[in-house]
Amino acid sequence: MCTVVPISLTVGANRIVPTVAIPHPLGNPALTKEEEKDIRRKLLNKALNALSTEVSEQTVFE
Fold first, then answer.
1. N or C end: fewer C-beta atoms under 10 angstroms in the chain?
2. How far is it, in rounded angstroms, from Cα 58 to Cα 41?
3. How many whole angstroms separate alpha carbon 11 and alpha carbon 23?
4. For the residues of 8-26, what is the DSSP string, one character each?
């Protein structure tokens, strides 16, 4: 999980899951608690999917 995808690509990360923003990678404090929970759940599910997916080259999971 990262906030700056080009840096992750440059350093050679195999699986890249983009997050929200640099100061708040896993959420947005301007949202309600329910909306934040929804964002975090979606990011976590995306990350788990990335870990369980076979990759042969750098892959960005949008």
1. C
2. 24
3. 21
4. HHHHT-SEE-B-S-SS-TT
> How far is residue 56 CA from its own chain's centroid?
19
- Can you give the C-alpha Rg of the chain in angstroms? 12
Residue 28 makes CB contacts below 8 A (sequence gap 6+) with 20, 21, 35, 36, 39
% of the chain with per-residue pLDDT over 90? 100
Is the distance from CB of 2 to CB of 15 less than 8 angstroms? no
pLDDT band at residue 10 under the 50/70/90 scheme: very high
Q: In 10 A of CB 60, how many CB atoms?
A: 14
User: If you average pLDDT over residues 1-23, what whole number do you get?
Assistant: 97
Q: Amino acid identity, residue 37?
A: K
